[in-house]
Amino acid sequence: MIDTKETVTPVIGLEIHVELATATKLFCRCRNRFGDPPNTNVCPICIGMPGVLPVMNRKAVEYSMKVALALGCQVAAFTKWDRKNYYYPDLPKNYQISQYDLPLSSNGYLEVPLADGSAKKVRILRAHLEEDAGKNVHDKPGFTGVDLNRVGVPLLEVVSEPDMNSVEEVMGYARAMQRLVRWLGASEANMQMGHMRFEPNINLHIARGGVTYKTPIVEVKNLNSFRALERTVEYEIARQYAQWEADPDGYSMGKLQKQNRGYDDATQQTVFQRAKEEAHDYRYFPEPDLHPVVVDDEWRDEVAATIGELPLARRARYMETYELSFKHADALTQDAPTGDLLDEAVKGGAEPKRCVNLLLGRAAALANERNCTIAQIGITAGGLAELTKMLSAGDVNATASGKILEKMIAADDSPRQIAQAQGLLVVRDAGQIEVWVDEAIAANPQAAQDARAGGKKQKRAFGFLMGQVMQKSKGAADPARVKQLLQQKLGP
Amino acid sequence: MPQIPTLTAVQLAEAIASGQTSALEATQAYLAAIEKLEPQIAAFNQVLADRAVQHAKNIDAKRQSHQHLPPLAGVPVAIKDNMCTSYGHTTCSSKMLANFRSPYTTTAVAKLEAAGAVVLGKTNLDEFAMGSSTENSAFAATHNPWDTDRVPGGSSGGSAAAVAARECAAALGSDTGGSIRQPAAMCGVVGLKPTYGRVSRYGLVAYGSSLDQIGPLARDVPDAALLTQVIAGHDARDSTSVPRPVPDYTAQLDEPIEGLRIGLPKEFYSEALDEQIDDAIHKAADAYKSAGAQIVEVTLPHSRIDTDEAGQLSSYAVACYYIVAMAEAASNLARYDGVHFGHRTDEPVGDIIELYSKTRSEGFGEEIKRRIMLGTFTLSSGYYDAYYNKALKVRRLIANDFTEAFKTCDVLLCPVAPTTAFKLGEKTDDPLTMYLADIYTISVNLAGVPSLSLPAALSKDNLPIGMQIVGPLFSESTLFRAGRMYEKVSNVARLTPALAAC
Q1: Which of A50, A51, A83 shows the shortest C-beta gap to B331?
Q2: Which residues of B are tagged catalytic?
Q3: What digits encode the pLDDT tens for the residues B270-287?
Q4: To 10 degrees, the CA torsion angle through B388, B394, B395, B400?
Q5: Domain limits of chain B?
Q6: B contacts of A288 (beta carbons < 8 Å)
Q7: How many Cβ contacts (< 8 angstroms) between chains A and B?
Q8: Fold observed for domain B4-256+476-500
Q9: Residue B283: Cβ within 10 Å count
Q10: Most buried residue among A89, A329, A344, B23 by CB atoms closer than 10 A?
């Protein structure tokens, strides 16, 4: 009889490599920037010429500390650099300066919001700092180019415990990490620019018939998109299950070594790379060219003071204080400056909900067009507050507010100045509205007649005339006043 | 006006500043000496005559327009060819870098040039500074000016021989396990291994990064002090250089130190030491005693030298040194792979591993390969604790011994090498014996302390015998003054080999 109580639990840990947004590289003063022509952001130090020495970029350590503290990690009072030795053309020294046994930070956690509204706590084993490698470029057949612009860019490697048990949790964790490092300004975390790379390790714990089977752990290297991460985890769960099912006793952790697999974007499958016994011996040893880093309380506190409110706390506050929905609160806490804009505008007297409608309406649409965050479209909190107040006071209507917001990006003028210049202020002047009403009635005698006549055509004709008047006012007439005047003129 | 090559750097700088001679005359005199002596000595890998002449002319022009002259204005010097210069080649005496040109100049060399020194050329060394005889050069062996059948010591043998032969007024060398002090002793010149961190390493092609220091090789102590004065100091490009003010090493140099306590480490005066050297250093100690110094016996237990029944020497310090230095070297030399710069194999290769392997097999000499293999082995998984980690502990114990010793004395007086200069080819087949040439010098590098090597006497067969004065961290001022005391009471200052006599 088949045991129907079989349970399959994926056990997943994730290493996330985050390129830090420092102006310069980790051990030299070359520019840290993506997209420049190959080998232009290089110097004798980062390309490992004979005789050069590394000098630590303090800012990179501070960004790392900031992320570590935000993850609730312990920041080590004493941390050191080590050399990780391996040969590869994109690593010109043939060793990477990294951190081995005394990482910058350890033992933290990240809360991952799940779709059902609950949160999963994923523990962080350690987060350490290292220098990135360059890139091998295969753009000419028969040749491999080496671009060393990226070599020496500070890279924070955040290693989680194997606490995730589903694709959703993995994706939630990865996205939460992206949001956090962006929030802290530690990284742009732009996937297209390779600012974040994932290395999941995955196996399955399968309980069947009172026995728990564990499949061998698979580590998948160098995934550079959320999609690749998702597909990899999905594929590995399915592949490992199928392989286990074919041979429940053979395909097990005790009998097979941990293996490395790579993800093939074309087939969306993982492929075997090497077993652990073939793994590199990195021959780590302390980097003699750099002093250990001593982090005293004063330095740590200084960095901690720059962290401020974290995204999940802010989201909860928005739901509580501004009475926003989860969806709206979440959308406004994807990055810190957008929420800052809202908070500032509210402080300036804006009514929160109307302000949020502006931000998540026209502002979000503009941000989407420009492929940037809402804060990056370039409106000020003062302008936003004023526009919100104008809406609340009925000085502008919703349609006009969108147009004004768009103009605020390009101009230094205040929303009121823009509204005036564009004729977008609500017109309450009864004389002017009466002129438009009379014109509309005179130009549309049939409609006027239908409206006066009553019956089934009356409502439609009245609405048509309303529209004609609003059109003449370019949307600026106070609709209540128009309705009132039309009723007077067409009334019995 | 005496002949230019007989002047010390200090004297020559004064003669140029006062107009008795010019930078150009000085440079030409040394270029002539090089031309005459190089066929016998082979101290230089490359002579940069045109550049030196041009530089000298610039200095003379400066003097003629009464501009302030820096302390070494017009003094011709030589640079060990493991210091990068943006001019000429930087070869490390290796086939791997035979055609290598550096895009930048070593901080210490730049400081020397900023002080007015004229760089005559780059001197020979044991490949990548690994060796004790300058026979491990990929290009040529350098000969000792005192006896051209003998080695000049190493690895800064080119610089030491050039100074001894009066092919330059002074030179820079580098010392990882004795590479300044041992050739200085064998060539009869003065050499300083500064405190680790006193001189920037930026631009020095790394061998053992935690041990390497650049230092001067000079005719006498005042020259060594002046050169050290110029090259010392913090460098933002070297995190391990120390941000500590540089004292005036030349001040009070001629004043004897009152009540100087000199420690003789008993472990160093054993049967392993050549009798003549033992005798010469004890005579030097007697001379110090006559000058008012106090001689005390001290102990450096972890630097002791053991002799087994077969007469084979061994020492914790040597074992520790070769583990630490080779581990660092294996990593430091990994970059020479034929991908980015330096030698690349002309052989057809199937893949990148073959490119690495053929390039490195062809580009490196035997000694380099031996040390890379040893260093790779000791860092390997499963061996790290037994070798590297243990070596770090031993290193700490060796350093502690020095700290203890300096509680009862101001400086230590020690041998530099177990023998005087040996014959070319004598030890090349026996790397272990060659390693023992450093038996008295490497503890100093492991402890990071400074040491001044200076001539003690001449042996019966007219070869220089050196001694070293070792002090606590940053005690260079004391070492110079103590060294100068001996120069004044002995007849060995500015020893000149017959071959170099003008």
Answers
A1: A83
A2: 80, 155, 179
A3: 888 899 999 999 999 999
A4: 160
A5: 4-256+476-500
A6: 208-210, 240, 328
A7: 96
A8: Amidase signature (AS) enzymes (3.90.1300)
A9: 14
A10: B23
